TrEMBL record:
Residues 616-709 form the B12-binding N-terminal domain. This is Methionine synthase. SUPFAM superfamilies: Cobalamin (vitamin B12)-binding domain, Dihydropteroate synthetase-like, Homocysteine S-methyltransferase, Methionine synthase domain. One of its GO terms (cellular component) is cytosol.
Amino acid sequence: MVVADGAMGTMLQAQDPTLEDFENLEGCNEILNVTRPDIVRSVHDAYFAVGVDCVETNTFGANHTAAAEYEISDRVHELSEAGARIAREAADEYAARDGRPRWVLGSIGPGTKLPTLGHVTYGTIRDGYQANAEGLLAGGADALLVETTQDLLQTKASVLGARRAMEATGVEVPLLCSMAFETTGTMLLGSEIGAALTALEPLGIDMIGLNCSTGPAEMSEHLRYLTRHSRIPLLCMPNAGLPILTKDGAHFPLDAEGLADAQQNFVRDYGLSLVGGCCGTTPEHLRQLVERVRDVTPSERAPQPEPGAASLYQSVPFRQDTSYLAIGERTNANGSKKFREAMLDGRWDDCVEMAREQIREGAHMLDLCVDYVGRDGVADMEELAGRFATASTLPIVLDSTEVEVIRAGLEKLGGRAVINSVNYEDGAGPESRFARVTQLAREHGAALIALTIDEEGQARTAEKKVEIAERLIDDLTGNWGDSRGGHPRRLSDFHQSAPVRRSPQDGIATIEGIRELKRRHPKVQTTLGLSNISFGLNPAARILLNSVFLDECVKAGLDSAIVHASKILPIARFSEEEVRTALDLIYDRRAEGYDPLQKLMQLFEGATAKSLKAGKAEELAALPLDERLKRRIIDGEKNGLEADLDEALQSRPALDIVNETLLEGMKVVGELFGSGQMQLPFVLQSAEVMKTAVAHLEPHMEKTDEAGKGTIVLATVRGDVHDIGKNLVDIILTNNGYNVVNLGIKQPVSATWTPPRSTRPTSSACPVSWSSPR
């Protein structure tokens, strides 16, 4: 078990350095590395004396933005090297005394500017962190610790700057990354722990964890997530509790025994590899921590990683349960006239609103393409990716043929982006677009979509698609991963895409190519630009053909598709004849006197998307009342719902309508969802109709037990935003006489509910305990 040191700043300030010691730069602790190395050395000695294995350098503020506050950004390298040398001398001296190795962690702090909010450019801070890291390496640091990070884009710039420093100096050391989470449960800009892990682990870092901001109690849930999902070792360096402001300044309430207790539990429960302290911790804290964990073996971990992409705020797994990953296509200047015109006019707010519309429609990621002849693609990408970074909760797929446009997008997005795309059209040599884009993907930890196109053009048969796919897999996993396990070495972190054009055999070739590729490589994700299959048809026919083709591809193993999510409907919404005709077209089942394309055009002659919906309304109206109500739930159709419910109330009690009819509809929705025939956005629509129906019926319901049968506490676990089932349980239990306390979504397992004093039983709080479905 490796133990690091504790607080640095408070230890330095306790020795009362003079203004002269600070060179009149009061508060700039890093200056003391040059002016008072004896003070800095005494702090390291104090920690080594109590038995720690490693100390952090006094370089937390030796970076571009923090040093610029004192107008000494040109001294970053000097101060970093001086700080590392002091720690190196102390470590070597203690190691020589007893033969036990001591190590130096080169501290790389967050700085004072947030690039995601436009305070500073990505390139500026990345280069500043490179100078910081080069100085630390020159001074003898054994590892680099990117710590107390608050903005994922700043974190990535720190990691990439450190990587460049190692390449420039020829010195390679472990790279550790530690984040600061607020009491809100997120990083300063709102990033959840899943988003942070998804964004940072693919950068090839060697260890990940938490430090600062809070005490150990507030870190437990985040560590629980990391131990379940992180492939790499974990670290934790908490404050000595949450600070309490007093007349004498900040007071940290957690004593040495409390810190040792918490860290011992973390090592035992979460398998930490490195522990230490941060603000408010003293040599005494670390002495007790060393005694407690020195001989403790970290628990074995069996992480279950979730390959995915991330926005600044949340992670989105590539594999969606019982559904496909929907990549919204409406923010693509080549595919959406509305988006293109807004971009050309500089109506950036309209572009952002189109992104938000797709979120509401059920997209999981957004395809962002700004390519347009005559435009400055880099400037457009910087503008839109910068806005989407904070305005969209969904990860971004950067879609461009220009390498510099993709780079511009990557340098604006703090989460983990997907790059669309690479192929072998101009070969795979070092100057090829394939090599340049793949290098960007590796550097930024981005996922990669690879097209089945080679030097001879697009693959048109299943066999050729699989042949090119095999070449891509061998190349990307064999030649483009680094020894640290960085992207894109893992098969689960890049996608194969098979473009479709409308010729009789292309649909079949795509389906069979997907099926064979997934048989050979189950972990490779597959994706598809869906709408090509239906170009030329009218809007209503396109909805049918796209929906049926997507359903067939998903059955063959397709993982994701670039789609207009609201224009994909469950197969159950179409008639048998419509579905059969679409399948005949996809599988080229022509016969004498029968052309499925002509038949499809006849079926939808003069039809529009609106008329398609109107036709479904007519079908509903023709059904018996009970069946109609059930279909409204299944189809997510609100129009006319209240009139139908009022009619049903004339002959049956409200609770019977819910239990015998509406819940039967939801049962069908669950079965369709479980079998993959209905995607999550449509389940949400059905749940919304169910909610509306119950709200309309509730005033007519009689509760079965006036006194109440008891109290039920419900919540959805942190990491999951879906609350359909929970809310339905709430409705049914409430109307059957239970007092239901609904805590809402994203609740930690430590959440508690305190009942009102008049109803309070023997204990004062009701803990909520459950296991995450993940």
